[in-house]
Amino acid sequence: MRGGQRSILLLLVIVGVSILLLMLRDTGVGISVEGFVHSLVSPIRSATTSVAVRSSQTITDIQRIDELQKENQLLRNEVAELRALASRQKSAERENEYLREALAYKQQNTEFSLLTAQVVGMDSVDALNTVVIDRGANDGVRVGMAVMSRGNLAGRILTVTSTSAHILPIDSTQSSVHAVTIGDPGGTDGIITSDGGKHLTLTRIDPEAVLKVGDAVETSGLTGRFPRGLLIGRVLSIHSSPASVFREAVIDRFERTKDLDILQVITSKVAPPA
After folding, report:
1. Of 150, 185, 183, whose CA–CA distance to 249 is shortest?
2. Are 30 and 18 in contact (CB under 8 A)?
3. Given the DSSP bridges, would you call strands 165-169 and 130-133 parallel, antiparallel or unpaired?
4. Which residues contact 161 (CB under 8 A, 6 or more apart)?
5. Which residues contact 163 (CB under 8 A, 6 or more apart)?
6. Is the pTM of this model over 0.70?
7. Could you report the per-residue pLDDT of 221-272, keeping only the tens digit for each?
8. What does each C-alpha distance from 117 to 121, 221, 246, 262, 265 come to in angstroms?
9. How far apart are CA 214 and CA 206, in angstroms?
10. What is the pLDDT of residues 162-190, one digit of tens each?
11. What separation in angstroms does the CA of 63 have from each of 13, 66, 70?
């Protein structure tokens, strides 16, 4: 028998006994029976009262648990909102930093006409791993234009639509850049390539060229594809190529594709004043 059914049965018993006592109140039998019944019913009444008290406490506990769960959910929501706010603030701070550096570069390199663009996605087409920006033909973007980030080479425009463009980043396996090293004394030139890994490789280095770890590497401007002087990275190590008389160098690039956010497209080279 369940707890609720037992409570109902006890209540019926108490009601029945109470009626019987009222009927026998004026008789001696009633008095003795009343005392007997009182002694009999008293424990039952106490037990019933105890059950009622415990039931009331259980309901109170359930209500408290429900309140705590709601409070916990509110706190979780507040934490999520604070995290989202912190993320937006961090993104805004990073964007402002990029824009300040881009402006400083533009002021120092007035020979370039720059168009600022926002990275809106990454796309993997034929393993090219292109970067998508929110500027296109309507903004003057053309195929082959160089793209940089804070004065560092990011890649070149591969395809263009009216409102967007795909960039072939320098760490794509299909990219190659003629570059020179900046060292003391002298420097050397070579071809920057990538195997899709963490670092770039400067190939076809003259075995007699002066080159050392830490030297900066920048675009040479010789092929006409990229302007001269866009920084690419720094020499990490130098080694001989077993399949060639040339040496090779591992280059730690200054800009990583996954970190690109705000970019500048070099739309033209400004002619010097006459």
Report:
1. 183
2. no
3. antiparallel
4. 136, 137
5. 134, 135, 136, 138
6. no
7. 888 888 888 899 999 999 887 777 899 999 999 888 888 888 999 987 644 4
8. 12, 23, 38, 6, 7
9. 18
10. 999 999 999 998 899 999 998 766 678 99
11. 32, 5, 11
